[in-house]
Each structure stands twice: as structure tokens, then as C-alpha cells.
Amino acid sequence: MADELPPPPFAGFTSPPPGPEQPPKPPTEEEEEPVDEEDALENENENEPEEAEEDDDDDDEDDMMAMMPDYMVKRVEKLKDLNDRRDIIMKDYLRERAELENKYFGVCKPMYVTRAEIVAGKMDDEIKAEAKAVVVSSSSSTDDKAASSEEAVDNVTGIPQFWVCAMGHMEAVAELITEQDVDCLEYCTDIRCNDDEDGMGFTLCFHFSPNEYFSNEMLTKRYDIPNLLLDDEPILQNVNGCDIDWKENKCLTTRTVTRKQRGKSGKRAGQIRVVTRKERTDSFFHFFSPPQMPGVMEEMDEEQADAIEEAFDHDYDVAQAFRSHIIPKAVLWFTGEALDVALTPEDEAAEE
Questions:
Q1: What are the residues whose beta carbons fall under 8 Å from the beta carbon of 44, sequence distance 6 or more?
Q2: What pTM value is reported for the model?
Q3: How many CB atoms lie within 10 A of CB 282?
Q4: Pairing state between β 201-208 and 188-195
Q5: Are 318 and 162 in contact (CB under 8 A)?
Q6: 166 and 334 in contact (C-beta within 8 Å)?
Q7: Cβ(169)–Cβ(336) under 8 Å?
Q8: Residues 85-117, buried b or exposed e (16+ Cβ, 10 A)?
Q9: Which has more pLDDT, 10 or 267?
């Protein structure tokens, strides 16, 4: 008779009567909790270095070089050596160009100072004296009467509205100026552009005489552009405006709107309350509150990215309109003659 097989393990096992529930034992080092494969994969992705994309670029370059025969690699390395030498030469070029720009800015600066004095009326008497000196001594009595009549009428100081008129003839700037802005911009006495000594940025300075709108004597706008002196597409590294200290009820960039609201429910149902809020208004003075640079890790969709890029492009166009055109040739923009003169190669190069 064949031997009977033993019963399977735990066959006929009877569980003990239920007792008080015991908390589960924490897993020991030997008995680790099972890890879900998807969670493990996500953790691995989180731990990957942020430089993954840069590493990919380096890998692509290495792969390209790896595909070449040795004799071709040596030739490419020679070309890369030439490129490195060119980079060194370009650094010297930019340094010397920045020095040259600073040199001739210093030469032109006294003329800009004199221009500001003429606009402000500080040289009215001197200019009048020079005009009299060129009058021929044998002038007729009619000319004498005309001269005396002119002196009687000449009670205007300097050249009023000089800068606002010059700005109004430059389309990129004129489209920002409202009727309310004109009265305020009449107090602008000078506009300057100070380039950095290293040629990697510039600051626009707008000077104002005491006025009823704000207490600032100067408004500034600064641009950090590492490749400013190159013909490449400008790389805006940073843009900074300034705060305008508006006097009470004189702010041109916002307006206060008061509305009445009637309560619809609760204890205040039927009651009317007054709500006051500020709304943005069109004004040139928004130029001093530039668009905000997006953060490095900030996520945005394509439409938002395009809107930010367009805002910065327009802002920079306005800045270059001042730096390359209005400031160096202000009198021609004031008279409107600049509108009839085609841009010279120097102007186009400066604008780029």
C-alpha cells in the first residue's frame, strides 16, 4: 500500500480566538516595504541634475566628433583653436571700442551742456548780444524799428516745449504721449544718455524743473545689454525703471474711480456703499515701469511668452529712439527736419 502523502502546510489549521487588535509592526531593515515602480521612476527623474539639457548638447557635440575620422578631428580642433583666438581678439575690440565711445562722449558732453542752457534760457542775453553784434551799423530806420519791436515781444525764456516737441516727431515715442502728458513734459529741461564705461549698458536720464506733477528732479531708465556694441540682436539682461513720486491727485498713470454698489443679500441688503479703486490710464510715464523679466523657473505658455517678448521689443525700440536719434540730434527732431532726412549708415548702425 502506497504511503499517504502528508497534508499541505497549515492544512486543518484552526485560528485562535480573536483578541485585541495589535498595531502593525514597522518594517525592519531586513523587511523593507515594497516600492511602486512608477514612484521609483519619478524619484529617479527628480534626482536628475538640472544640467541635463546642457549635457545633451555636449553629448551631441561629442557624438559628432566621434563620428569623424581622426584626421578630420584634428582639422576641426584646429578650427576651434582659431575660433578661441578670435574670441580673444573680439574682447580687445570691445574694450577699445568702449574706450573710443567714452572718449567722444566726453568731447560731445560740453555741447550737450550748452544745449541744455540754451533750452532753459540761461544764454538768452548772450545770444541776443551776439545777434546785435552782427547787425550792420548802417541799418535803415525801418530795420531799427523792426529790431525794437522784436525786443518788446521777446519776453519768452529759452525754448518752451523743446523736448516734448522733439519727442512728438519720433513715431515710436509719440504714440505713447497723451494730451495730459504734454503739459507735464513741458517741464522737461534735458534728456541725456550715459553709456557704461565697459560698453555693456546705458542709462537714460530725464531732467525736470520743479512742477505740479511730481517731486523727482530726474527720472531714469537703465538697460544692461552685454552685446550692446555688437551688431547682434540685443540681449536684454536687465531693465530697471524708477519710482515716480506723484503729488496728490496728479498721477498720470492711474485714475481713481468711485462707484456705488447696492448690497444684494445679508444684513446689508439694499444698502448702498461707495467703492473706490485705481485704474490704469494710458501715459508716456509707464515707460519708467518696464515689463518684468520672467523668472528662470517660471512656466508660461507660448502666448504669454510672445506677449512678454513683444513688450520688451517695443520698450527697447523706444529706448533706442532716445539714445540713437532724439538725444544726439534733438534740434532736428524739434524742428521736424529729421523727419525728411533718411537714416544715415551711422544712424542705422547705432540703432542696431
A1: none
A2: 0.70
A3: 13
A4: antiparallel
A5: no
A6: yes
A7: yes
A8: eeeeeeeeebeeebeebeeeeeeeeeebeebbb
A9: 267
